[in-house]
Amino acid sequence: MTQIRINELAIVLTTEANLAKAEDLAKALFSRRLVACVNFREVDSFYIWQGDLERSKEVQLLIKTTRQNLKKLLIAIKSLHSYQLPELIHWNASSSEEYNSWLDQVTC
Fold first, then answer.
1. Nearest Cα to 19, choosing from 47, 54, 46, 43?
2. Which CATH code fits 7-106?
3. What pLDDT shows up at residue 108?
4. How many angstroms separate the CA atoms of 77 and 90, rounded?
5. How is the chain split into domains, by residue range?
6. Distance (Å, rounded) from C-alpha 18 to C-alpha 15?
7. Cys-Cys link to 36, which of 42, 56, 85, 103 (CB 3.0-4.6 A)?
8. Could you read off the pLDDT of 37-82 as tens digits, one per residue?
């Protein structure tokens, strides 16, 4: 039986105003070698902003990185993001050894 070793990584969730801005943000993060993979999904969002209920179409980014890069990644997203207050939700996750090895290879 093959033994599977569990490895840890970090996942970050944020949204951008549209696909062009989401792609620009992702490309900037890739150029800094802070991320290994970014998935995009169009979403309808409801949220309270400055006391009002808002609704908008956004693009959600699901970002995979190493736990070692998480702090640098969050700082970069804050500085590059088009929103005044970007959504920055992050959590630790586990992956296969092969996936984690690839993640380490493509990030700093």
1. 43
2. 3.30.70.120
3. 73
4. 12
5. 7-106
6. 9
7. 103
8. 999 999 999 999 999 999 999 999 999 999 999 999 999 999 999 9
Residues 6 or more apart whose Cβ sits within 8 Å of residue 108: 32, 33, 34, 69
The structure tokens listed for 20 are 């062009």
Kindly report the pTM of this predicted structure: 0.89
CA dihedral 93, 38, 21, 89 (to 10 degrees): 0
**Tokens coding 78:** 């804050």
User: What type of residue sits at position 65?
Assistant: T
Task: Yes or no: say if 96 and 7 are a contact pair by the CB < 8 Å rule.
Answer: yes
Tokens 């890739």 sit on residue: 30
Strand partners, 75: none
Return the HEC string of 23-87.
Answer: HHHHHHHHHCCCCCEEEEEEEEEEEEECCEEEEEEEEEEEEEECHHHHHHHHHHHHHHCCCCCCC
Give dist(CA 66, CA 76) in Å, integer.
Answer: 15
